[in-house]
Amino acid sequence: MASLVWDHVVHYVNDLQQAIDTFEAHGIAAHRGGDHPGWGTYNALSHFDLTYVEFLGIRDQAELDAISSWQVVSRDAGRFLPDQQILSRLALRTDDIDAVAAALHAQKIDTSPILEGRRYDTEGNLIEWKMLTIDGDFQGVLYPFVIQWQQSDDARRASLSAKGLLQPNAAKGLTLTQAVIEAEAPQTLAEHWAALFDLPLSNDEHGPRLTLPNATFLFREGAANRITDIGISTDDEDQRGTTVAIGQGAYHLA
Fold first, then answer.
1. Can you give the chain as a three-state secondary structure string?
2. Does the pTM exceed 0.90?
């Protein structure tokens, strides 16, 4: 399978501006992203180099209701909101989404077709990508999805830097380092994801973990059956030890 890295995490929220303000009150930069035409959603983003947090909200309920059942990321906004402002899915980035699809199909995993995604940023620029989703869940935990951006990593980094979107968090050494997934059978779930996405699996005193080139996914025992926490490292000593809560999601700075 083509190499995968952590691209972003989806956090469903009712109020994008409130999520932005909460992050910024704790010294974490965030900004409005844009609309998803035809999907009924819109987003706000907080960039930590190319890995980021996506706050996703409902822009148009009627449009959301009409989307394909395979468009699980936007569809689930309607499933969870307004009551559950949760961290929902992890996105894994690849530069060969066709190879990832083939590898998943070889494991008898039923995926969406490769979907075309697009949104307009606040300046009206079109941003495009491809994505591959897996519907349903494994032991109650939603599957990650796979994304391939139209631009290369270097080109995206240059574009985001030119817009000034990477510098605010980079100046404080802020980096997304870890996602914590709480599951009733964490070892079984970690083994399933490791086999599915060809990721290295290890165990320590904290539990099973998957290691990606740019982060770790830690699995711990609990009843939530979802992502509960995101780890952020910081060079700012005043930020260390802070927990930022947005809805049912928590961001821990260390």
1. CCCCEEEEEEEECCCHHHHHHHHHHCCCCCEEEEEECCCCEEEEEEEECCEEEEEEEECCHHHHHCCCCCCHHHHHHHHHCCCCCCEEEEEEECCCHHHHHHHHHHCCCCCCCCEEEEEEECCCCEEEEEEECCCCEECCEECCEEEEECCCHHHHHHHHHHCCCCHHHHCCCCEEEEEEEEECCHHHHHHHHHHHHCCCEEEECCEEEEEECCEEEEEEECCCCEEEEEEEECCCCCCCCCEEEECCEEEEEC
2. yes
